[in-house]
Design a protein that fits this description.
Low-confidence stretches: none
Strand content: 15-25%
Largest sheet: 4 strands, parallel
Structural class: alpha/beta
Number of helices: 4
Distance between the termini: 22 Å
Helix content: 25-40%
Number of strands: 4
Order of helices and strands: HEHEEHEH
Strand order of the largest sheet: 2-1-3-4
Mean pLDDT: 85
C-alpha cells in the first residue's frame, strides 16, 4: 500500500487520462532516447541499433515521453525513460518493450521499488 502512495498513483491516474487521448499508430520499431542525447553515447547507440535492426525501425528522441506513437515495439535507452514513458503511455505495458539498464541513481522520486515496478512491465 505504501508503494501506491509513493509512486503507483501516477500510473493509475494517467490510465484515466489516456482514455480520452488520440494516439498515432506507426508500423515500426522505435529506439527511444531523450532529446539532448543525439550527440552522446545513448544517441549513437540508438542510431546504430536502429541501423542494424532487421525490421523497419527509427530513432525517436523525446523531451518528456508523452504522446508516444503506438509502434510494433520499443527499445528504451535508459530505465528512467521507460518509467516516464510508461506513466504517460499506459499501452506500453502490453507492448514489446526492451530497456537498457544503466547508471542507476536512486532518489525520493525514483526509488529501487519504483524501478522494479516499471521494469516488470518491460
Amino acid at each position: 500500500m505504501r508503494d501506491f502512495f509513493e509512486f503507483k498513483w501516477k500510473y493509475y491516474l494517467q490510465k484515466l487520462v489516456f482514455l480520452f487521448k488520440q494516439v498515432k499508430h506507426i508500423d515500426k520499431f522505435l529506439f527511444t532516447s531523450q532529446i539532448g542525447t543525439e550527440k552522446w553515447i545513448l544517441g549513437a547507440k540508438a542510431r546504430r541499433l536502429s541501423r542494424y535492426f532487421n525490421e523497419e525501425s527509427e530513432v525517436l528522441y523525446s523531451q518528456n515521453f508523452k504522446n508516444l506513437p503506438v509502434a510494433n515495439g520499443y527499445y528504451f535507452l535508459h530505465q528512467k525513460y521507460f518509467s516516464r514513458a510508461l506513466r504517460y503511455n499506459p499501452f506500453l505495458a502490453k507492448k514489446k518493450c526492451f530497456v537498457m539498464f544503466t547508471h542507476p541513481v536512486w532518489t525520493k522520486f525514483y526509488s529501487k521499488n519504483h524501478a522494479a515496478y516499471t521494469l516488470r512491465k518491460a
